[in-house]
Amino acid sequence: NLSLEDRLGSYVIEGTKEGLFPDLEEALKIQAPLEVINGPLMKGMAEVGRLFNNNELIVAEVLRSAEVMKASVSYLEPFMEKDQSALKGKIILATVKGDVHDIGKNLVEIILSNNGYKIVNLGIKVPPEQIIEAFRREQPDAIGLSGLLVKSAQQMVITAQDLRDAGIKVPILVGGAALTRKFTKTRIAPEYEGLVLYAKDAMDGLDIANRLSD
Ligand code: B1M
């Protein structure tokens, strides 16, 4: 007899969708879609991370959890508030080279595109060359990099250097679990000519993008 909140977390932890959608519908009666994601679903994902870290879950199980998270986000997405104002800017998004984690990046895409930004999502494991190529093709106003592994933080330093060497100066927005504001400021920003801004979550990413486009 779990509470609704605990049930939502447990779908993610157990990696099961049985009963998920009716419970999401129920949750929408009391919470905004993003609150459901940032609250019970993220709490479940944090527990998955903890169990995985303790070797109590295997990769295949974590993948099922990721699928539940993705299915939940897809279900909730149409209920999110949409800003119908004119296009505020174009942003390229990529998970950096060597990293496959994309749930956070895709959440950033949803939130930015629902709020007036045109997003070009380059996917996962994106090497700097591919970002540079996309920059030249798309001429975006900013570049967003995501990465969850400790080595991805280092990869962001390399990516910033390569972008700088290619003459790119648009603001870079960075986010992801292994990253900190301090690392961004002391290790990534000094390697780049333009602004490098750290976003702690997707909403923070939107706030930063809005400040840049004002
Ligand atoms: Co992996 N994984 N994983 N994993 N995984 C972590 C990151 C880990 C912390 C788990 C752990 O051990 N506790 C650990 C990293 C350890 C480290 O480097 N220190 C880890 C590991 C080790 C691995 C593998 C190496 C495991 C293996 O194969 N042995 C492997 C890596 C493969 C690779 O990348 N080369 C791996 C694989 C996987 C799966 C494929 C099974 C799956 C990913 C599926 C997918 O993404 N399609 C997976 C998952 C699901 C996780 C955890 C459990 C959850 C990540 C997640 O989706 N969170 C994670 C542990 C954890 O974080 N608790 C873990 C939900 C998501 C919404 O949050 O992505 O943090 P997040 O995004 C947040 C913010 O970070 C921010 O906004 C979002 C919230 O609003 N944000 C941005 C993110 N990007 C942003 C960009 C922005 C702005 C904000 O602007 C551009």
TrEMBL record:
<comment type="function">
    <text>Catalyzes the transfer of a methyl group from methyl-cobalamin to homocysteine, yielding enzyme-bound cob(I)alamin and methionine. Subsequently, remethylates the cofactor using methyltetrahydrofolate.</text>
</comment>
<feature type="domain" description="B12-binding N-terminal">
    <location>
        <begin position="1"/>
        <end position="88"/>
    </location>
</feature>
<comment type="similarity">
    <text>Belongs to the vitamin-B12 dependent methionine synthase family.</text>
</comment>
<feature type="domain" description="B12-binding">
    <location>
        <begin position="88"/>
        <end position="214"/>
    </location>
</feature>
<protein>
    <recommendedName>
        <fullName>Methionine synthase</fullName>
    </recommendedName>
</protein>
